[in-house]
Amino acid sequence: MFFETWLPDFSFLFLSILVEGAPFILLGTIISGFIDVYLPSGAMDRILPRNRSLAVIMSGMLGIIFPVCECAVVPVIRRLVKKGLPPACAITYMLAAPIVNPVTFLSTYSAFKKIPLEMAGSRLLFGYVIAVMVGLILLRLNVRRILKPGIAREIEEVTARRAGDHDHDHDHEDEDKGNRLIMALRAAMRDFVDVGIYFVIGITIVAIVNTPPPIDQETIPLRDYIDGTAESTWGAPAALMGLAFLLSLCSTSDAFIAATLDAFGQGARLAFLVFGPMMDVKLLFLYSTILSRRFILALAVGLFIAIGVLSVAMEPLFEKLEKKNDPPFSQRMEE
Amino acid sequence: MKKTTFNQIVSSLATIAWGAVPVYFYARGVIGNYLNESFHLIALIGGLAMMVLGLFNLIHANRQVSCGHDHSHEHGEKDGHDHGPDHEQNPVAALCLMILPVILCTGFTKHEYSKEALRWKGLYKQRTLRSLYSNYNAEFTRELLEKRTPRTREGNFLLQFTELYWSAGDEKIMKVYEGLPAQLEGRLIEEEPDLNHDDDRKRLYRVVMTCCAADAQVLGLPLQFGSPLPTLPEKSWVTARGKVAFESIDGQYFAYLRDCEVEATEAPDPRAQRRR
What we know:
The complex is a heterodimer.
Chain A: H1 2-38, H2 43-47, H3 52-59, H4 62-65, H5 70-82, H6 87-96, H7 102-111, H8 116-138, H9 143-146, H10 149-162, H11 177-210, H12 222-227, H13 235-247, H14 254-260, H15 266-278, H16 281-287, H17 293-325, H18 328-334
Chain B: H1 3-28, H2 31-34, H3 40-59, H4 91-108, H5 115-120, H6 130-133, H7 142-148, E1 157-158, H8 161-165, H9 171-177, E2 181-190, E3 201-208, E4 217-224, E5 237-249, E6 252-264, H10 270-275
Parallel strand pairs in B: 1-2
Antiparallel strand pairs in B: 2-3, 2-5, 3-4, 5-6
Helix pairs in contact in B: 1-3, 1-4
């Protein structure tokens, strides 16, 4: 049973997520490699406003200019943080970019036929607001409480050197362009392997959860448990956020899955669409390449509560919008 | 061999191994089992890029290009760069977590779900999707259905599998489809014994995925045969012809084709389907 069905099914699922996600991780790590070699230290300081709050607000919108999904964004911000981007801005961008970008907006718009603009707009707006809220809170926290100790130490060392404590200039005139390309691609591969290892752990868990257990074939699939919560005010968004967490879908196409969950209200589906790109199993492990474990846990709980509350608050509004936009045929069906 | 060179080689091999998987699936023609069509080209380009990156670094594994010492440093404002003291990846971790799982999974995968997984993914379940039929701004009638659906020479309507599957559950929609001569394509599998008391049924199914196989839903439609059951192998692609009917089991409606006949066919080309 194990070798005949479970292992082939697990392998099939594992590889399907791997071949879908790996190209995006590669894209992120190549960008990160080139940032490492070609982006001058302190460049981010010059790009972003000096006012930190304003910088966080702006970081939430960077996804419009640099649209990346959640797999690609982690290696990029990892490198940008090392280059001096304040962690609050980096995490705001990391949380917002997979949602606040034109590709995600268009896919959500196409998936929700009944209230396309309202759903795509709400997703974008809530994704942005939640990410900026997190960023503004992080401005008040010490870097050591947010980042992994090793990365926090590195940033502090770089900051200290830039402040003049240990300025260490030396010539690299002998470095030709070829050498820099090799350095960039070497850094890209190092990041790819670094992130890839955590990605594998994440997708292994996702694949296990989605593979039928090898012993009890009567086990009820996860989706059936979740469908049972559809009528519950608080249970529905909580269950769909849990589903988003376990499925670990790509933000550019998760709206098509959300659209099929029509036993649920639009508010609960919005929770699925906002929570998923910010926190899921694979991201949990990708985040741990840069963020401290304690912070990831706090972030997961905070997002779960904030998005859950927002989605419940939005449900009556969505119901009104749905009734308003219902086509005549559908109105007759409900009679 | 230096430790850093060895690490570099292992990392390069891990990157090549990851890149080889989508390229191999693409070359074997099974990529469609793993990913939605919109991701095929991305996976191929990504796979090739991973292989190039890995090979490039493998070729230059022994080349000394860093500053020669392990710390951050700062250049002038214009063309400077700042690279931190990145740690070297543990080669054992890269080997155990990146290379081995990929090789093992590629060896074990059968490029499709087992029957148990199909069942788990909803092969014998019925779900309703009200929103599919609420997209029409006019009343959905038999006339509208006939007008927009192509027919075969024999007069069978070429229905989309999903369209018929989602029609169950709403009485008005079911009336529109009831009795319609239809032709569908899908894969043939045994019917659930509890739903096949007269032993005259098989099931047609399709796997619908949005991104990859992990998010796939399996949609199944019973086929009832007046004549003896077909003896085609499990999971064969077939063209099924019959009349649309609905039945209620435990208070839930299911669409099925009655007086059915099937013939083996090739797996449909997704690009041709999309054009249609």
